[in-house]
Design brief:
The complex is a heterotrimer of chains A (750), B (160) and C (424). Helices cover 29% and strands 18% of the residues of chain A. By secondary structure, chain A is an alpha/beta fold. The chains are: A alpha/beta (750), B alpha+beta (160), C alpha/beta (424). At the B-C interface, α2, α4 and α5 of B face β3, β5, β11 and α14 of C. Bound molecules: flavin mononucleotide, iron/sulfur cluster and FE2/S2 (inorganic) cluster (FES).
Chain lengths: 750, 160, 424
């Protein structure tokens, strides 16, 4: 730490810092375009030139390291005239079309030009015009406005991990563009819009809609993954118009995934459920809330029968509800005496599934020196977590994976094990054996007969030799026949190698569901048992059966065949729901209600509603509250969702801890991993047209190698479980990896 | 498609650089592929070179469009590159260029109908003591006069 | 004359190993391999020789070599800059063609001094004849056991490779050259960090010009003092001057520093018959132009040329007689920098095009009265504000042409044609 002088003021600086970091810290404003605190320094715009005493030329503040005794002027004649010169050069070929530019009002060029520009143009030579090409569904380009700061290019190579934008040509004809006509493909591409200081890259879905100053902005939380990225939701006349990243270094830094940025489009989809409806004699009638709720209450009470028991009520919810919604619904039905509650609709066998704690902070994830990823393509499934892992890898950390298919990771893999799902538990067990043996511990009997493989030794060595390692367990194993074993093995491996763990299998807001106690009570039924029984009634919370259930046709059949009374609360209309339900209550979607998301760190992130729920739809927590009132259940007089949160926090439930045992079973047949494609994981995403148009949105394939295909008697023009077959050697033998933007399989899997 | 012969040649360049730095060979790789493809590059070829050297396509495209010596549209068999920078200009390169234009019947930068010749104006080729000068393939022709240029062109026409 | 880089130029096959060795070539290198010369020793001799970088900036070579971190074990590189592209400059091409072994030996010595076991010679893509010559010389050197790992049983290793450019003047700038060697666009890097700390592949690297490397073996063979005394104060030794333009016998001359310009002009046969000297660019197109009187009174060394108002640069003397239209000449130079700007930094990308367009407009007869002020102002707004010196190189000629030949520019603007009647 030493002192330097800036504009006559003495300020502290640290060796290695760049001048601009110091001026930013102490609030001295230095104009800049290419500098971005999360990207490498390019020093190409030259806007930040300042005068450093002793230097003959003005120096760029963004790339000049501080040194003891330095004297800097950001304002004197030399600095000002350099800045003015650069500003003029930036503007000579710029169209100055602010009135029709989407960036108008939030443009860094416009802002700086106000203070540093001159209002007479001395350039009379005809401006450069650049033709634009279509680079995909999410980003619109107006490259004539580009100031060649290369932030977007650096974003690609440094953050997204794939170089998509580049600068072609040279000199004046330098052009920022992607290669070929494939457009931009990264799952983080929307951040380029945020980093672009001008109107060259703008949001395509938002285009031409409005000016930034016309909109209201509310702080909110994105809920599509386990991170809960911080966002600003910009609205106009009660509609969400745009979503941009909000900085929070401990959560998402300044980035958000495309999923979080563009899903809002679904809010105004014509498929929204907007009015309460009741089924009379097999036909749907729009009714008032009073009538609909009255119908619900009566139906539910009737279903309790003479014994007045709610034992035969089932309550199911998707993974995307708020903590408050889970809590209230759970409270309501427990008050009624019902314990049949579940949100794990996609789990084949809730007794055999993952139960693993996460115990590493997101911001520490980038400091780990080794990661073992099991059953996850983190890049597309949890983009912001993958970003942290990538940062760790760039810092020299290593990454091993155990997966059933080779994925296109954007970080260097140290050791990639591609094995069939049923071998995963074996490999982990044999790894554990190596770990225990090499740390001179007793090896449990179950592991004794295991032979130690080379891969196991490698994986173990790496975990043992790392100081800060993490084991990441992903969604691909939730329905593995050995899911529980895998979960236990990971926990034991972590314990014995001093690794932390990250459970990525509980996506959406599942952690909140656990905290709220949204799982079967002691004598309650889990989802699969309910479906197997003759339940008299169901309350279904934002469930879309063909996507949410592990085996959708069985589920739909169970729900339709039996003569149960079914109340569905949904934000989107759904045919199957309409078929089996007796009442449909329109509820809020994302950004239309206040609530809380709990992220993988256990961080409660509460948000307010950004807009009102459209038409007659209502915030779901209020609907549940009114339902409770109508059912004469006391304790529901909340005036605000924050009261609900307070209460929920006092009643935090612990998810059940599974016993640590290992008992591995073998499978001989072809194994299927069904993983929804990244933009199909919830209803809002499925209704965002732009996202569906992207390459990622279009992913819909059942990938298998040629020998598996032969075994199943399939060719690459066939479908498997309704999904087009792709034959590729990237998948483990005897395994089909399905990445589908369609509903879950409708037949029992092979 | 990059031929095996070209791959072998590219490999001999890759060997010069440290392990993992094979993309250092991209400039030569592009030249090799270009000369196999009738003196010009296509996006497909650029992508193939990028794949071969394990680098992003756009990075190879950046290189292919930054340097002068790559062509992106069908190019003549013989490219006559005439220096028109200061020392050559002082020694009559402009007349030389006008002469070449009338001799070939096409403007600089254009390819003759038979695809044989294209005259390009280029910046200093580092042979200023031999001004005026021009380059065809690997060869420099210096101390030019209009007669010498005629002889060169006639030679090209005869396919020499 | 012709005592260092060109000392074998009149011999038969001057490029061959045998010719080179017959005149004492590789004697220094062999001494090093026998362990008879220490790096410190060599740096001292180089410092004493007064050798300044021949690539244009004139930075003392001995001092530059001493900047490389010598005690760490990480990989380091020496790189030879044979990208020669500055208009008027054509000496490195001849060194590569006629004395390639001096470059090899110079680079090997540099590698030894700076503990860099790998070297690259970056040759501009158009220099195919020099490239083949240099490659042949490399082959000879490897065959004779002068290069490789643990050369002739010593602990010294040095591998040397060529890299070819593909047509970009900017790659002569040393950090652009490094980028290009890494297989990227030739965009200069900002400094600091300097290549001596973060260079090729992120490793410490020293880049020197071909002539700088080629001078080293002879300096060490005959002693720093010997070389120094060939020249004058602050400009030790002899240097290659490329004399081109309106002279009778344009050529490269290796002459002692400090030689009067007049004598150099005479060596080149003087001005073409019936013509008078009008202007001289003494150091390559990016150095300020001088009037005939200024040039005729000047000696060819760093200080004298600076006193005359220009720079020695790469020693590329462009001679113009009274048939030269200065407007056209400046326009051509402006076009060059406009064409060759890499495009990454704002003042150069936007400013070089602006300069060229104003000049082009004047040439087209559409000049306006404020144009000369505008040209000067745009030039000075580029100057000093760019990442690399290409911006300065584009701006400096403008200022000097307008200052020394203003009436020609004014005439052109007013009359829409050149003041010089039979201009070429
Ligand atoms: C635009 C530009 C072009 C340059 N071109 C060359 C060149 O062609 N050859 C060269 O040796 N140095 C060139 N230089 C200078 C190099 O950056 C560098 O200073 C030089 O190679 C160092 O070698 P030296 O110390 O031996 O002179 C150029 C510099 C600039 C700014
Ligand atoms: S498109 Fe935007 S971010 Fe990219 S270089 Fe241009 S101005 Fe910068
Ligand atoms: S912000 Fe410093 S040069 Fe662009």
């Amino acid at each position: 730490m030493f002192e330097i002088e800036i504009d006559g003021k003495l300020v502290n600086a640290e060796a290695g810092e760049k001048l601009i970091e110091v001026t930013d810290r102490v609030g001295i404003s230095v104009p800049r375009f290419c500098y971005h605190e999360k990207l490498s320094v390019a020093a190409n715009c030259r806007m930040c030139l300042v005068d450093v005493e002793g230097a003959p030329k003005p120096q760029p503040a963004c790339s000049t390291p501080v040194s003891e005794g330095m004297k800097v002027s950001t304002q004197n004649e030399k600095a000002k005239s350099a800045q003015k010169s650069v500003m003029e050069f930036l503007l000579i070929n710029h169209p100055l079309d602010c009135p029709i530019c989407d960036q108008g009002g939030e443009c860094e060029l416009q802002d700086v030009a106000m203070s540093y520009g001159s209002n007479v143009s001395r350039f009379n030579e005809g401006k450069r015009v650049i033709a634009d090409s279509n680079i995909g569904a999410l980003i619109h380009t107006d490259m004539t406005r580009c100031i060649h700061c290369t932030r977007c290019v650096r974003f690609g190579t440094e953050i997204a991990g794939i170089m998509e934008m580049g600068g072609t040509g040279r000199g004046e004809s330098l052009k920022i563009e992607p290669f070929l006509n494939e457009g931009i493909q990264s799952e983080l591409s929307g951040n380029m819009i945020d980093v672009c200081p001008v109107g060259a890259l703008t949001s395509k879905p938002f285009r031409y809609e409005l000016r930034s100053w016309q909109m209201n902005s509310t702080e909110s939380i994105a809920r599509h993954d386990l991170v809960g990225s911080n966002i600003n939701v910009q609205t106009y006349k009660g509609k969400v118009k745009r979503i941009v990243a909000r900085s929070n270094d401990s959560v998402n830094e300044t980035w958000i995934s495309d999923r979080d940025r563009f899903s809002y489009e679904g809010l105004s989809h014509s498929n929204r459920l907007l009015k309460p409806q009741v089924k009379f004699d097999g036909t749907w009638k729009e009714v008032s809330w009073e009538v609909a709720l009255d119908f619900c209450v009566k139906g539910l009470l009737r279903s309790a029968g003479e014994s007045n028991s709610m034992n035969s009520l089932g309550v199911l919810a998707s993974k995307t509800a708020t903590l408050e919604e889970y809590y209230l619904l759970q409270k309501l039905v427990s008050e009624l005496g019902c314990e049949n509650i579940d949100y794990r609709l996609g789990v084949k066998d809730t007794k055999n599934t993952i139960n693993l704690e996460s115990n590493v902070k997101l911001s520490d994830l980038e400091k780990i020196d080794h990661a073992l990823i099991v059953g996850s393509y983190t890049r597309l499934e949890q983009p912001m977590i993958n970003h942290r892992l990538r940062k760790a890898a760039l810092r020299g950390g290593t990454v091993d994976v155990i997966n059933s298919m080779q994925f296109d990771f954007n970080l260097a893999l140290n050791n990639e094990n591609i094995i069939i799902p049923c071998e995963i538990a074996n490999l982990l067990a044999s790894t554990l054996k190596v770990v225990l043996e090499s740390t001179n511990q007793d090896v449990p009997e179950e592991l004794n007969k295991l032979t130690i493989t080379k891969s196991a030794t490698k994986i173990a060595k790496k975990l043992l030799s790392s100081d800060a390692s993490v084991i990441v367990l992903g969604e691909h194993v939730i329905n593995n026949d050995n899911a529980k074993n895998i979960s236990n093995l990971v926990a034991m491996l972590a314990k014995n190698t001093n690794s932390s763990t990250l459970n990525l299998s509980k996506t959406g807001n599942s952690i909140a569901a656990d905290i709220a106690g949204f799982f079967p009570g002691k004598d309650g039924l889990d989802v699969n048992s309910m479906l197997g029984k003759d339940m008299n009634a169901y309350i279904m919370f934002d469930v879309y059966p063909e996507y949410d259930f592990h085996n959708s046709s069985t589920a739909i059949k169970a729900l339709s065949d039996k003569n149960s009374f079914i109340v569905s609360m949904n934000s989107f209309y759904n045919n199957n729901v309409a078929d089996y339900s007796d009442v449909m209550l329109p509820i809020s979607s994302y950004y239309e209600t206040s609530g809380t998301h709990v992220n993988i760190e256990g961080e409660f992130q509460t948000f307010a509603a950004s807009v009102k729920a459209p038409q007659e739809s209502k915030p779901a927590w209020k609907v549940i509250k009114v339902l409770a009132d109508l059912l004469d259940i006391s304790g529901f007089n909340y005036s605000d969702s924050s009261n609900v949160l307070e209460e929920a926090k006092h009643n935090i439930k612990q998810g059940h801890r599974a016993e640590e045992s290992i008992n591995i079973t073998d499978t001989n047949s072809v194994e299927v991993i069904w993983q929804p494609s990244p933009y199909s994981i919830d209803a809002l995403l499925r209704h965002s047209d732009s996202l569906q148009e992207t390459k990622i949105g279009q992913i819909n394939k059942a990938t298998m190698n040629s020998s598996t295909a032969k075994h199943l008697n399939l060719g690459d023009k066939d479908d498997y479980l309704g999904v087009p077959v792709v034959i590729s050697s990237l998948v483990a033998n005897n395994c089909v990896f399905i990445n589908a933007n369609k509903s879950t399989p409708s037949e029992e899997q092979a | 498609m990059i031929s095996n012969k070209a791959k072998k040649e590219i490999n001999s360049w890759v060997e010069k650089y440290p392990e993992g730095r094979q993309s250092s060979a991209v400039m030569e790789a592009l030249k090799i592929v270009q000369s196999e493809n009738g003196n010009s590059l296509t996006t497909e070829l650029i992508q193939e070179v990028a794949d071969y050297l394990d680098m992003p396509g756009i990075a190879a495209q950046e290189v292919a469009t930054f340097y002068e010596n790559y062509n992106h549209s069908p190019m003549a068999k013989n490219v006559i590159r005439v220096c028109h920078n200061i020392s050559c200009m002082l020694n009559g390169s402009d007349e030389l260029i006008t002469h070449l234009e009338s001799k070939t019947g096409v403007k600089t930068g254009e390819v003759t109908q038979d695809g044989n010749i294209c005259v390009k104006k280029v910046e200093c080729l580092g042979a200023c003591v031999g001004a005026p000068m021009l380059q065809i393939d690997d060869k420099y022709y210096e101390h030019l006069t209009l007669e010498k240029v005629d002889a060169i062109i006639d030679g090209l026409k005869e396919g020499k | 004359m012709n005592e260092v880089c060109f000392k074998n130029i009149d011999k038969k096959e001057p490029w061959s190993l045998s010719t080179y060795e017959a005149s004492g070539g590789y004697s220094v290198w062999r001494k090093i391999l026998k362990g008879e010369l220490s790096p410190e020793n060599i740096i001292d001799e180089l410092k004493a020789s007064g050798l300044r970088g021949r690539g244009g900036a004139g930075f003392p070579t001995g001092l530059k070599w001493s900047f490389m971190p010598r005690n760490s074990d990480i990989q380091k590189y020496v790189v030879c800059n044979s990208d020669e592209g500055e208009p008027g400059t054509c000496k490195d091409r001849d060194i590569l063609r006629f004395n390639p072994h001096s470059v090899i030996e110079g680079m090997a010595i540099g590698g030894y001094v700076m503990k860099a076991s790998v070297g690259y010679n970056y040759i501009r893509g158009e220099f195919m004849e020099p490239f083949y010559r240099f490659e042949a010389a490399l082959k000879e050197a490897y065959k004779t056991g002068l290069l490789g790992k643990n050369i002739s049983g010593s602990s010294v290793s040095f591998d040397l490779y060529t890299h070819l450019g593909a047509g970009a003047y900017i790659c002569g700038e040393e950090t652009a050259l490094i980028e290009s060697l890494e297989g990227k666009k030739g965009q200069p890097r900002f400094k600091p960090p300097f290549p001596a700390n973060v260079g090729l592949y992120g490793k410490p690297t020293t880049v020197n010009n071909t002539e700088s490397f080629a001078s080293v073996p002879e300096i060490l063979a005959k002693g720093g003092k010997w070389f120094h005394d060939l020249g004058v104060k602050n400009s030790g030794g002899c240097k290659l001057f490329s004399v081109t333009g309106h002279v009778k016998r344009p050529a490269n001359f290796e002459v002692p520093m400090g030689i009067p310009f007049k004598d150099l002009l005479d060596m080149a046969g003087g001005i073409r018959d019936g013509r008078k000297l009008k202007a001289v660019i003494p150091g390559g197109s990016s150095t300020p132009v001088l009037t005939a009187d200024e040039a005729l009174a000047m000696n060819m060394d760093y200080d004298s040329i600076e006193n005359a108002g220009s720079m020695l640069g790469a020693g590329s003397v462009i001679v113009m007689d009274d048939s030269t239209c200065m407007v056209k000449t400046l326009t051509r130079l402006a076009h060059f920098y406009y064409d060759e700007s890499c495009g990454q930094c704002t003042p150069c990308r936007e400013g070089t095009g602006w300069l060229y367009r104003i000049l082009k407009r004047i040439m087209d007869g559409d000049g306006k009265s404020g144009d000369l002020d505008l040209l000067n102002n745009v030039g000075s707004n580029i100057l000093g504000n760019t990442i690399c010196a290409l911006g300065d190189a584009a701006a400096m000629p403008v200022e000097s042409f307008l200052r020394n030949f203003s009436e020609e520019f004014e005439y052109y603007i007013e009359n829409g044609k050149s003041m010089v009647k039979d201009n070429v």
